[in-house]
Structures are given as structure tokens and as C-alpha cells.
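Lab notebook, bench 4. Still working through the backlog of constructs that have no structural model yet. Next entry is a single chain of 261 residues. Request: give me the C-alpha cells for it.
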Amino acid sequence: MSKSDRDAEDVAPDPNAELLDALRALPAAERRLVMLAYSKARAGDAERKPYPFDSAGLADSLMLGGDKFDKQLEDLCRKLLKRPVLLRLPEGAWVLSSWLAAVEREPRSERYIFRLQPALRRPILELRKRSLIAPLDAYLRLEGKYSHRILEMLLEGRPVGAARGKTVGAARGKTRGAARDYWEIEVPIEAMREAFDLNERYKKAKALKKWVVMGAVTEINLAELGLRVEVETTLQGKKTKGFLFKVRQRAEKRGRVDDSA
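Model written out:
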């Protein structure tokens, strides 16, 4: 393997990837609270809209309980109100924020009111939208450099460039199959190289498949996503043309997964 193949650090910044890394870095309880607090947000909401949650629902979702629930929740909220997150906006600017804007308990009520950070709401909504089948919490379990990008490609059922906001014509990548629980996506090598900003890395098809494709597919198959992915190499003569991804959604996961979209 060449030096360029081993160099996996110099990848063009992806705002969604950076937010995923920040979410993964949170302690599990704090990450659950962030995802719960933002779960009610919608694209057209007012900037400082309050989002109410009842105590029982919070205790169940956060796996907290007993006489110390209020104290435990207070500690979690205090940490998220102070814990910084550095976020790259789509236009390229950086913003320093905390994970939550405000949390308060309603007087004489069993409800807590959460107010979200405007800078974080849009990126988290985008992550939720892009994880069309798998729950975002499961999506966050993927740790490989290219795993979440390939998962997006598979779930959106469209060419890899479209998952990054780039145009990839039908001649360069195409989706096959119309069944709800099975589909195929053929991705040409050059479309993948361009969409993943690989530059001079993994120039040989064998290295690309080993270090980018198979590592991600193995992780996706092992995660609790309800998906089974197989990969075949497609040829044009004796030359590798691209990769054919065969995706099957397991029936026992279908109901739960579809409800999370």
C-alpha cells in the first residue's frame, strides 16, 4: 500500500461529519438528552420556540429514575448548557455554541421546557433528514471515516454525489430495484472518488475497495441498523468500472426503522 493510501487524515471538511464527531464524543447520557431535546424541532419553527417534555417521558428516554431524577437531569442540563461545540456552517464560517440554549422547569408542573441553539438546529435537522431509514442514534454508532457517507448513499437510494449535494448524472451512477426492502446502487469509481474528495488517495481500485468501501460496509452490517449490504465489483472489459451495492432491509427491523424517519 502506498503512502497516499495510508494517509486517511487529509479529507476535505464535511460539516455533517464534524457534527457527528462532536455528538459521538459526548457521554452517552448527554448525547441522548441532546437528541431528545432536538427531536421535536421542525424546519419552520421560530428561533426561540419552547419545546416541552414531561418528567416521566424524560426519565424513560434518558434511563433515569428514582428520587434523584430531578438532580440527575439538572446535572445533565447544566453540562450541556456549558459544554462548547465548535460547528462549521455550510457557508464555511465557524460558530462556537453550547448544546442547549436554556432549560427550565414549569412551576407546579411535571414538565421541563427546552430551548434549542439556533446554530445547531438546522445541522441536526439535516442529519435527521439524511438518515432516512436508520434512527440517528444508531447512525451515530458508526465510527469509520467513510461509513456515514456510504450509509447516506445507500439510504437515500441515489448516486453518491447527490448525497453530498453534487450532481451525478444517470450515466455515472444509478439506482436499481423498486422493492421497499431491497435495492441496488451502482456507483462508478470516479463518482465515488469525486464525492469523497479522495484526491490522490486509493488510486488503485483494489485499495479503494479495501480501505474505503469494505471497511464501511462491514461496520454498517455489524451495527443495529436493520440493513444487510453486499458489494460486487463491476467491470468494463478487464478494468474495474465501479461497485454494485446490494442493500436489504431486514423485515424484523422495518417497522421500527421506518417510524424513525
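Notes after review: The first strand starts at residue 50 and ends at 54. The chain has two domains: 16-130, 132-259. Flag for follow-up if needed.
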